[in-house]
Amino acid sequence: MGLPALEYALPVFTDPLVIGLVILGTIAGVVVGALPGLSSSMAIALLLPFSLYLDPVPAIALLAALYCAGTFGGSITAILINAPGAPPAAATAFDGYPMAVKGEAGRALGISAIASSLGGIFSVVVLLFAAPFLARVAYSFGPPEYFALAVFGLSMLASISGEAPIKNLIGGCIGLLIATIGVDLTTGVERFTFSVPELYEGIHFIPVLIGLFAVTELLTQAQNLGQKRHSIRVSAVKLPSLADFRRIRSTILRSSGIGTFIGILPAEGGTMAAMIGYNEAKRWSDEPEKFGKGAIEGVAGPEAANNAATGGAMVPTLALGIPGSATAAVILGGLQVQGLRPGPYLFDEQPALLYGIFFAMLLSNALFLVVGLAGAKLFSRISLVPTTLLWPTVFALCFVGAYGLEQSLVDVWIMMIAGLAGYVLKRYGFSPAPIIMGLVLGSLVETSLAQSMIIFDQQWTGFLARPIALVFFALAAISILSGSIRALLGRVLSRSGGTA
Amino acid sequence: MRHSDVSVGIVLLALCALIYWLTTGFTEVPAMLSQNVPPTFFPRLVVTIVAALSVVLIVVGLRKERVPAPAVSPAVFVTAGIVIAAGLLVEWVGTLPTLSLIAVALPLAWGERRLPRIGLLAVGLPSAIYVIFSVALGIRFPAGQLFNWLT
Asked: How many whole angstroms separate alpha carbon A32 and alpha carbon A77?
């Protein structure tokens, strides 16, 4: 960090409002993460309308802190009640819960806290150097390259869930279609407005985000009302002993690298990072047979990876305007709501912002170690808050959040319709995350495609003369076809194995 | 055969046809104004991609085994009803009384029977929202037609 950087960084690092909001975001994030059904994406979506009351740096610092702490918070319920507070913590339950059953809940929580913290800090350091570097590379990008990059980002949706790649791609396209509602900026023509004046400016993505994340989850919770949750008692969280730390240090380092790399890939978030982190921890272990029965590497691996994915996901979000995960898509929306233009020029226009985010994420990753260690006993109780009282509160916040944006009841209806539609779609295997990615990227995709077509004089072949765009298209094709290629290879290998 | 994917694909194809038809109603603009990229271009391109993916979904679905989905719990319908009722009620009785009613109806619908807790939520939730969002952040919630008539 040179002197000009310090000039922007110091005021951010010493701003009491930013520090206070990061502390608040961290505590709120751990609490939200610890509540089953509530995720950091949902919490950030609910907070977005109110973050408008803050300046961009403190607002994004608050959201970034919530993102980091929420990812860690999910591990508390994964370990204590075998129900991950959020999908990225699912792999943590494989060994965390067996440890808790054996009376080692405090040890598992301590390992989770230290691995999450170190993984998160590792990725934030990468973010600080990689985001400006990537932004410099992207300076030379024109509309065709941006279009190709956005297509690559959307194509990655095919691989975020192995079970439903086609549905994820359709979900992304649904998001793109929703983004076309309103008056076309180039021609002034109304599209899909049905003469409703409130739709002329398009559908604001915040009510849709709140609906898809929170109202859909409210209905999902209604479906699962009969489920009983029992928390394993935890007396105190223990930091890993020196022997434990020696055992997990290489796992943490490996998973931090994996998580950061996965996070940087557009659309890939903490869930995939955690699964790969867990599998790699098992593959490299001297005692893989202990996994699933309470191996400490089985807690450290996914936790370091999913928290490392948070910093990684912010790299393409800030440098290219292409979200690295569903939660990063919501933060990207937060930047857009603040009137900022995510992408390479962000660092020239808002130099303090990068340091604000860097500082918020670094402080949050260090803070939740303290908060998690000191408050785990309390958080284990929070995880048992009755759903019958929690969810009316969440719905009330959805209502107020959707209304508060423009103080319009139309937004409340949009939120409710999005939530009901989200539940129906979820029931048929569609995840809300791809729709949100499509919605957030919609404007970029359409504008860059339209500009490209004007540049190329309506000739699609014009893309052939743009090597960077071709690379992104090739990556997109690989991403979409990777599942089929893997299945084909598997079939060929099993046949050759069978005949051998 | 995986019935749900096939039916989802068919519904999506029908929706694509509907959306494509809706684009035919867009106002036509001179090519010079649209720079040869008419407002129908992008929606139609996306709809075509969705249609193609829907066909793939149907074809893949036909080859898969049928996976029976669990029945939708009655609580989901009741909850959805409360959500919609809240949207309708707010224009008549106002935001804060609506939130108070949600705080009573939703826990009761979900099987909560500890009335003091429900009562506390029904009073505490709208009060907290009023203090935080109305007093502190200055958000003006709609008072509702009923309030307007009474005053």
From this structure: 11
Domain boundary among B63, B86, B114: B63
Q: What is the pLDDT of residues A266-325, one digit of tens each?
A: 876 788 899 899 999 988 888 888 898 889 999 999 999 999 999 999 999 988 888 888
Using CB atoms, which residue from B12, B35, B54 is nearest to A454? B35
DSSP B36-97: T--TTHHHHHHHHHHHHHHHHHHHHHHHSPP-PPPPPPHHHHHHHHHHHHHHHHHHHH-HHH
A135 compared with A174, residue with greater pLDDT: A174
Final residue belonging to a domain, choices B41, B63, B85: B63
Q: What is the pTM of this model?
A: 0.84
- Between residues 334 and 363 of chain A, which touch chain B (CB distance below 8 Å)? none
Asked whether the beta carbons of residue B87 and residue A416 sit closer than 8 angstroms, the reply is yes
* Separation in Å, CA of B151 to nearest CA in chain A: 22
Is residue B86 domain-shared with residue B143, that is, in the same domain?
Answer: yes
Domain count, chain B: 2
pLDDT at position A161, please?
A: 57
Pair (B18, B55) in one structural domain: yes
Report the pLDDT value the prediction gives residue A412, as an integer from 0 to 100.
92
Whether B131 and B87 share a structural domain:
yes
Q: Is position B84 within any domain?
A: yes
In a domain, B68, yes or no: no
Print the domain residue range for B139: 74-150
A223 contacts on B by Cβ (under 8 Å)? 70, 72-73, 75-76
A195 touches B: beta carbon within 8 Å: no
